[in-house]
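re: the backbone from monday

yeah here it is again, tokenized this time
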């Protein structure tokens, strides 16, 4: 929670810095999770092949913790481009990650482009293709919720959804009877050596957690927290949680900011 309040302060400062404050931004707004879940990719918004093997491999992290990026021209307004950069800035403020506009000689960069269907991202660094796709919604809505942009950026940096972690059954119950036909695949659990917790235990408040009614066919909960205070925390898109910050800094071996590993 502390991290989110810190980020709220950062957001206010950054809005002034970037001139976004003039845009019709609603800080709460639409969480964007519907557009994450319905983007048409694996688990909704993860543009990857089915099996996420090897995500602990350092080769799938961005070299030198630097993400070179290009925002495709004419796909977004100037305000939207600044808002995407604001999401990057929020991550830079709590980690050693840097996002740099890709110079001409850099070929392995993150392409940020538009989508008609939803918000999505490839997962981790790759020499071939790393892409984030966002519906060019107005600021504070859909894919242009600040938390949703950070959610997609964390996928780009190599993170999966929280409820897929190996120990998730200790923290949540998946309610199969409420899940839409054909969507159960989005709730699979990965081996511990496939994802790794990077020094933070299961976190209901993670920005990478599904909302509790994700892929519900009847409006009922599809994920039920085993700890009473967990239910209302799932699906938040306000900002990175403390656990998200810990994992990010541990994954990228950030100096100074790196908390102890388990
Ligand atoms: Zn996602």
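seq for it, each position gets an aa:
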């Amino acid at each position: 929670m502390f991290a989110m309040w810190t980020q709220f302060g950062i957001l206010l400062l950054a809005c002034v810095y970037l001139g976004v404050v003039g845009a019709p931004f609603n800080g709460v707004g639409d969480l964007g999770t519907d557009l994450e879940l319905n983007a048409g990719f694996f688990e909704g918004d993860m543009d990857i092949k089915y099996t996420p093997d090897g995500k602990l491999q350092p080769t799938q992290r961005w070299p030198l913790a630097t993400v070179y990026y290009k925002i495709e021209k004419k796909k977004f307004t100037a305000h939207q481009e600044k808002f995407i950069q604001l999401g990057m800035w929020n991550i830079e403020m709590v980690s050693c990650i840097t996002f740099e506009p890709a110079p001409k000689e850099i070929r392995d960069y993150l392409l940020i482009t538009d989508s008609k269907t939803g918000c999505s991202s490839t997962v981790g660094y790759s020499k071939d293709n790393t892409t984030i796709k966002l519906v060019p919604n107005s600021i504070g809505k859909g894919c242009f919720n600040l938390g949703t942009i950070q959610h997609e950026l964390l996928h780009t940096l190599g993170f999966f959804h929280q409820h897929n972690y190996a120990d998730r059954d200790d923290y949540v119950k998946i309610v199969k009877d409420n899940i839409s036909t054909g969507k159960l695949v989005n709730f699979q659990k990965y081996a511990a050596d496939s994802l790794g917790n990077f020094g933070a235990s299961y976190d209901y408040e993670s920005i990478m957690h599904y909302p509790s009614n994700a892929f519900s066919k009847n409006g009922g909960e599809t994920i039920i927290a085993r700890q009473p205070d967990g239910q209302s925390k799932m699906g938040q898109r306000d900002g990175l949680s403390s656990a998200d910050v810990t994992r990010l800094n541990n994954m990228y071996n950030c100096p100074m900011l790196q908390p102890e590993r388990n």
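DSSP finds six helices and seven strands in the chain. The chain has one domain: 46-252.
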